[in-house]
Amino acid sequence: MNSRGAAQVPPRPSVAPPAPAAADPYQHSDAPRWLKFLWRTLAPRHVFGGLALLLFPFVATPFFTFQVAAQALVLGLIALSLGFLAGYGGMVSLAQMTVAGIAGYAMAVLGTSSSPEISLGWPWWVAVPAAVLVATLCATLIGWLSVRTEGIYTIMITLAIGVAFYYLVLQNYSVFNGFQGLRELKPPTVFGVHWRDPLPFYFLSLFWALAGYALVRYVVRAPFGIALQGIRDNPRRMAALGFHVVAHRVAAYALAGLIAAVGGILLAWYNALMTPGSVGTGWLINLLVIAVLGGVKHPIGAFLGALVFVLLQTFAIDVIDRERFNLVIGGMFLLIVLFSPDGLLGLWAKLRSRFGPPQTLTSTPRRQA
User: Fold this and answer.
1) pTM summary value
2) Does residue 286 sit in helix, strand or coil?
3) For residue 268, what are the contacts with CB-CB under 8 A and spacing of at least 6?
4) Of 255, 238, 333, nearest to 288 (Cα)?
5) What is residue 146's DSSP assignment?
6) Domain boundaries of the chain, sorted by first residue
7) Among 350, 309, 335, which residue's Cα sits nearest to residue 74?
8) In principle, which of 138, 153, 194, 320 could form an S-S bond with 149, CB 3.0–4.6 Å?
């Protein structure tokens, strides 16, 4: 029976099936989680970048290998701890260089230095882990004190802690040797390798920089990292869902302190000394500048900002007086903040979206009337 008023259903448009995703060979296997993480996160650019980092010291001079690349890796590792707190936890801490300084001073006091009346002379394989542990515990305490505040108050508390530690090491001669500091802090000779030579120290710094980078990339995708980002965006809602906001923030400070502590050990070995100037207010601000230059929302941004900072610091004398170096850094910092709040990586993303090849967008066809 024909029905005049019956509505005719329009034919469904033919939509091309989506391209099949790359098969994950470890999806249904008993492989460890870190292997699954590497398979899902590594891209061709990571492989090419890793090969370039491995081959760089063999084509560069020892000056660039040690003074530029190794220093950028060490400073980038410390800035990575600040970027993790600010980018994924919403907590800007100016005490990360202080944590690194605590690790360096602890290693100098527990190990060997130019002041045998102060240093205890422990072997390096005991002094280094103990120094990292002490610095991590101090970072946890700093987090416990500062996570109960937000915004400018967190910045002021961490800045006050950093300034207090600076004056402590400056005025204390019985433990920290005052203004002169503790010198001759050299990495040990292991397997017949002098680890402060340009090539070995570069690979030592590269190993720990990659380890810190991989750790942050893994954590931010883990349940803890996802919860931390939720707390950053809306702490009240996360607390209503049953998450302990203070505990997550303190744990984030502890993890960032661990990364900064390893960077502090490397920084002490790089400079072969620890002085109050290493933890002064200037370096507290410089570390923030490094993190913002690269982009706090990207783990690789800390190393990019450190590389730019070291290049400007090294070659500023060829462009402008060394005394005017802070003017150059301050000007670049203002430009980045004004035109790209997400740092150099954010600026690169904007340029790619504006001048790059147009992306083809597939949309669902409209239904015919």
Assistant:
1) 0.85
2) helix
3) 103, 104, 107, 108, 185, 274, 278
4) 333
5) H
6) 74-280
7) 309
8) 153
Task: Give Cα 311 distance to the centre of its chain.
Answer: 18
Phi, psi of 298 (to 5 degrees): -130, 125
Residue pLDDT, tens place only, 123-138: 999 999 999 999 999 9
Query: Could you read off the pLDDT of 253-268 as tens digits, one per residue?
Result: 999 999 999 999 999 9
pLDDT number for residue 335: 80
> What is the rounded average pLDDT of the residues 225-236?
95
The model's confidence at residue 1, banded by pLDDT at 50, 70 and 90, is very low
**pLDDT tens across 165-191, in order?**
999 999 999 999 999 999 999 898 888
Find out whether 330 and 321 touch, Cβ atoms under 8 Å.
no
The rounded distance, in Å, linking the Cα atoms of 22 and 9 is 37
Please name the amino acid found at residue 334.
Answer: L
Strands 189-190 and 182-183, by their bridges, are: unpaired
Alpha helix stretches (DSSP H) within the chain? 33-41, 44-59, 62-63, 71-89, 96-110, 124-146, 152-171, 198-221, 223-233, 235-240, 245-271, 281-294, 299-319, 325-339, 343-355
Output the CA torsion 320→321→325→329 (10° steps).
Answer: -20
The encoded tokens of residue 332 equal: 């670049």
Cβ–Cβ < 8 Å for 155, 247? no
User: Three-class SS of residue 169?
Assistant: helix
